[in-house]
Amino acid sequence: MDAPRSGEALRGTVQLYGWVLAESGIQQVIVYVDRNYAATATLGGSRPDVARAYPAFSNGPDSGWAASLDTSKFPAGAHELVVQGTANNGATRDLGAINVSFVKP
């Protein structure tokens, strides 16, 4: 997960993004707030940096993911964001887990 960063205070609708690789390809990326489903990410974002770093993965150039999260749907205060990826072969892994706070406008 590239953004947001752990410890950030988030307000309104925020963009989450990062990258994910799997030898079999990626089926989906899901965002959880306090281990409850919050959003499904859009896959296929351009990531030439990942492709250069991991040339053996065929999906490296398009390994980016992005999701929008409306923080107003959750109570103000501390929360855990977890992003989980599922590969085409069914393997599921946490891509990142960070602690953030949601602030009301």
How do you describe this structure in short?
By secondary structure, the protein is mainly β. 6% of the residues lie in helices and 52% in strands. It is elongated, with a radius of gyration of 14 Å.
Describe this protein's structure.
By secondary structure, the protein is mainly beta. It has a single domain, classed as Immunoglobulin-like, CATH 2.60.40. The protein is 6% helix and 52% strand. The protein has a 5-stranded mixed sheet with strand order 1-8-7-3-4, with no helix packed on it. It has a 3-stranded antiparallel sheet with strand order 2-6-5, with no helix packed on it. A hairpin with a 2-residue loop joins strand 3 and strand 4 (36-40). The chain is elongated, with a radius of gyration of 14 Å. The mean pLDDT is 96.
Shape: elongated
> Mean pLDDT, rounded to whole units?
96
Low-confidence stretches: none
Strand content: over 45%
**CATH-assigned fold name:** Immunoglobulin-like
Query: What spatial order of strands do you see in the largest sheet?
Result: 1-8-7-3-4
Structural class: mainly beta
Q: At CATH's second level, what is the architecture?
A: Sandwich
Cα radius of gyration in angstroms: 14 Å
What oligomeric state best describes the polypeptide chains here?
A: single chain
Q: Please report the total strand number as a whole number.
A: 8
Element-level helix/strand string: EEEEEHEEE
* Percent in helix: under 10%
In total, how many domains does the architecture comprise? 1
